[in-house]
Amino acid sequence: MKATRKLMSVALLLVIVAAVALAAGGGQQSGGTSGGSTPTLSSLPRRETLYFNGLLWGAPTHFNPFNVDSSFGITPFTPLSRQLIYESLFIFNLLDAKLYPQLADSYTWNGQNVTVVLNRNVKFNDGTAMTADDVVYTYELQNRYTTSGTAYWSYIDSVRKIDNYTVEIRGKSSNFNPKMIETSLCALYIVPKHVWEGIEKQVSGPTGIVQYPNWEPVATGPYKPYIYDDTKVVLIRDDNYWGKIASKYGKLPAPKYVAHNVYKDNASGDAAFRAGEVDVSQQFISQVWTFGSSVETYIPQAPYYFPGVIPSIVFNTTKPGLDDPAVRRAIAMALDYDMIGKNAMSGYTAPMVASLMLPVPAEQTLIDADALKPYQWNGVDIAGANRLLDQAGWVRGADGIRAKGGTRLSFRAECPAGWSDWNASLEVVAQVGRQLGMDITTYFPEANVWQADKDNATFDIIMHSYGGAGPASPWNRAYETMSSADIPPVGSPNRVGNFGRWSNPRANQIIAQLAAESNPATLKQLWTELNIIYLQNMPAAGLMYRPVVFHTVNTSVWTGFPKMGDGTNIPPTICSDGYGINALYRISPK
């Protein structure tokens, strides 16, 4: 297995799933609508239908559990995989950072191997029982074909059946990473072997199964496609869903239908949400507190949303000027994080503290905060940043731009057009440049250009979200940000996450050790040292804390959505992602 397969990190997948817009396609209709006239959104009973927005921006092109171009109801290969159509063995809860049983009952580590015991009651929607054969087959598909799940085989030696309801996953002794193996338990949808063996015969090439449209999915989840075209997608509840047994959920989810209109932009989605035509919104909503008393967020006051990722600026350390840590650190020191939080994020972020860590207990307990303080800065430190540049020998010219040895500090800061909160953030970065004697201009290309620039290191400063909530956090964020162990040679596309190609041997050593370390004292020592290296070198700079999904609800039709402190432990993941699926069993129509 090539080392570069390690790369397709969970955090990058979160960004792709959250951000990509599906290409428009021809209208499709499910076989479930035969007989009589075709149902429409307007004909669905309102008190039986839960409406979403912000998850789909064009006609659905597939219902494929291996395709990361998300289709409503499916988000594969993320720790918070959507549990509407397909399901994973376990589901992750970002509130307590734990895995909970879904298709499996338990998992147990024995050295470098994990034994998974399956739920004996699980059935696919064609009535076939799910067994260990399906689980082994699902894992092995990722090894036979090139999918985003192929990355897990960098950490897995083999997956084998012990008996019909027990599976053993053997970790690689040369690259043991239990957290990434645990991530696979909640990120891989389990598919039926008897169906996908037939599909394999219809496809060809290393990505053949990724391209298969799979319009009529055979899956284990509580919903299945009902009607869909270029204006809408509707899923209908499977009233034979296995999870209604008393030992699982004990009932069916409350909505008979879950539906999503295709909105042309955020403004039209916001208008529908404000009017009560949408119940659950995953759009960025500016000034959510102005939307009326029926609109609620998980946290009732600022920052309103639970943090899950750290959108950052990444510095291309192969570029002259940006190869100097003093330049990178000066930019980070001078940023007005409060302005970014208020203007770009409507206050939806806790105060930014320079480090690799999210402001959540599970991550903060891993570091010695006092030991980091000498390397951090308080607020906007323009004077300190300018002193740092002066000491590094960067001299202002007649035009006010600093230079040294023929290199001027002139850079372009990049993110996709139309990503309004990110666009506004980079404008703040550009303003800071002028105060430091740097010429920083903004550049907002199409998303595919931005992605290509990241992959090929053809950028100066680029914005990227370092994730993300999951069993491997914050290891995966550190790996993406700082590890150079698996970066391909210059000229080859880089999907590792360290797009700026920054390199530090000690950081690589620490990240490799953290992958399998379990001693609490050693963990704190290593995480603290790694954060100090980060603060000294600033290969990237976090701009804000952002939720994995913008869980905002309108309670004018449905009520009972999860809230902070309600005692349910259900996270704000739009009633469908990871452990958030439990919300569908609590809500009820008014």
Strand content: 15-25%
Question: What is the number of strand segments?
Answer: 23
> For the report, how would you describe the main beta sheet?
7 strands, mixed
Structural class, by secondary structure, is alpha+beta
Measured distance between first and last alpha carbons: 54 Å
If you compute it from the alpha carbons, what radius of gyration comes out, rounded to the nearest whole angstrom? 24 Å
- Compute the number of helices: 16
Largest sheet, spatial ordering of strands: 8-9-10-1-11-21-12
Feature tags:
single chain, alpha+beta, 590 residues, seven-stranded mixed sheet, five-stranded mixed sheet
Structure description:
The chain is of the alpha+beta class and 590 residues long. The chain has helices at residues 10-19, 132-144, 178-187, 193-200, 208-211, 266-274, 325-334, 337-344, 361-364, 369-372, 382-391, 420-436, 447-456, 475-482, 505-514, 520-537, and strands spanning 49-53, 90-93, 98-101, 104-110, 113-118, 156-163, 166-171, 223-228, 232-237, 257-261, 280-281, 295-297, 310-315, 395-396, 402-404, 407-408, 410-414, 439-443, 461-466, 540-542, 552-554, 558-559, 588-589. The strands form 6 sheets. Strands 8-9-10-1-11-21-12 form a 7-stranded mixed β-sheet, covered by helices on one side. Strands 18-17-19-13-20 form a 5-stranded mixed β-sheet, with helices on both faces. The protein has a 4-stranded antiparallel β-sheet with strand order 4-5-7-6, with helices on one face. Strand 17 (410-414), helix 12 (420-436) and strand 18 form a beta-alpha-beta unit. Helix 7 packs antiparallel against helix 11 (382-391), helix 8 packs antiparallel against helix 12 (420-436) and helix 15 packs antiparallel against helix 16. The longest helix is centred in the C-terminal third of the chain and has 18 residues, at 520-537. The N and C termini lie far apart (54 Å).
